């Protein structure tokens, strides 16, 4: 039986970054993953020479210089800047809401004109609520109308949000939208962060770099392994592919599964991807196009090559790959993507977290084990701040 300091369950960004740091610190690590490949949701599949983000489009963004330098030391990042476009019934609008959007919506040319239009529509919404004897927005629709007015809401928010949540905006709570920032400048850069990009050569390069020199085994589900803990809390974990004695377990799988679903299952929202190879070099001219009307069944179309090729280089490959994204209710067997932050799930998750706190020699980390949505950069930041 081989001895390890850490058995890391899950080779996603949390597990891989943890393994990298532990390996650098001279610790012995084994990383296992139930999928056939490493990398968790960052994994990209090469289709027609294009890196396809198989588990959803991933754009790295951060203002944390330490995190940015860390990932760039593993692999250099390109200059991709996320600037999605919205398609509402065939008309195109720039996102996030900025002077380009307002010029497209209303033909306005100056920030002053845009602001006056926004204020007029916000006022209209507040007055309508007042006339109904309401002082605070009762649902997401009222909240959005008072924050941004009816034109932006109806064309760019309503249909998209209803598809995302599978519910009418009038049935969704107001708190989901706390702020709707508008930019009174011509700037389509979606993120406000100082740094953003995609690893040159794709995310698999980042994962390969993090896991260089670390023992890894794919196609092994931790829960199919024979497991026991001795009096000191040390683990023995066995499968037909490995036998490990380890001091600490780093667990990045689902929180409820670790505790055998004893308080019931935690719920998720998921996304179904319909991926297609197109016989054209440039299908939509942008990596991300959101379909903001209610009639189009998908929320977004991703054209993967635009994450990594720019300008004329787009035409060097005569083909392209697109993925249509359908926001879907999660059922067993589907990928658990977004935690559902309602009262029932939050309180169930809290009970599981309390069990986790008392587990000896187990570190629970990452989006599944914490039942919490994290972007990639905060995951890296968390691991960089851990004592390993
Ligand atoms: C659709 C989508 C789009 C996203 N886009 C962005 C974006 O643009 N920018 C951004 O910053 N962040 C984005 N994120 C967030 C990003 O995916 C996460 O921050 C990141 O994946 C977290 O890494 P992780 O290691 O916690 O989880 P994961 O990547 O999910 O890794 C967990 C790993 O554990 C393995 N595992 C689970 N259970 C077991 C088991 N029982 N036995 C063995 N292995 C197991 C899984 O197979 C998986 O490989 C997005 C997330 C989603 C869902």
Q: Quick gist of this model?
A:
Helices cover 30% and strands 23% of the residues. With 388 residues, the protein is an alpha/beta fold.
And the CATH topology of the largest domain? Rossmann fold
- Termini separation comes to 23 Å
Q: How would you characterize the largest beta sheet?
A: 7 strands, mixed
Mean pLDDT: 96
Give the overall shape.
Answer: globular
Question: How many domains make up the coordinates?
Answer: 3
Rg value: 23 Å
CATH C-level class of the largest domain is: Alpha Beta
Structural class: alpha/beta
Would you list the SSEs in sequence order as H and E?
EHEEEEHEEHHHHEHEEEEHEEEEEHEHH
The helix content, as a percent range, equals 25-40%
Tally of alpha and pi helices: 11
* Beta strand %: 15-25%
CATH architecture classification of the largest domain: 3-Layer(aba) Sandwich
Q: Which stretches are low in confidence, meaning pLDDT under 50 for 5 or more residues running?
A: none
**Strand segment count:** 18
CATH superfamily of the largest domain: NAD(P)-binding Rossmann-like Domain
Catalogue the ligands: flavin-adenine dinucleotide
Textual characterization of the structure:
The protein is α/β, with parallel strands linked by helices and 388 residues long. The protein folds into 3 domains: 2-81 and 197-267 and 340-384, NAD(P)-binding Rossmann-like Domain (Rossmann fold), CATH 3.40.50.720; 97-176, no CATH class; 268-329, no CATH class. It is 30% helix and 23% strand. The chain has helices at residues 13-24, 65-74, 99-106, 111-131, 140-148, 150-165, 203-210, 255-258, 343-357, 366-369, 376-384, and strands at residues 2-9, 29-33, 44-47, 50-53, 60-62, 85-88, 91-94, 195-197, 215-218, 226-229, 235-238, 243-251, 268-278, 288-291, 300-303, 320-329, 338-339, 362-364. The longest helix is centred in the N-terminal third of the chain and has 21 residues, at 111-131. The model has no long low-confidence stretch (mean pLDDT 96). Flavin-adenine dinucleotide is lined by residues 9-15, 32-35, 40-42, 56-60, 221-223, 252-253, 271, 337, 366-368, 374-377, 379.
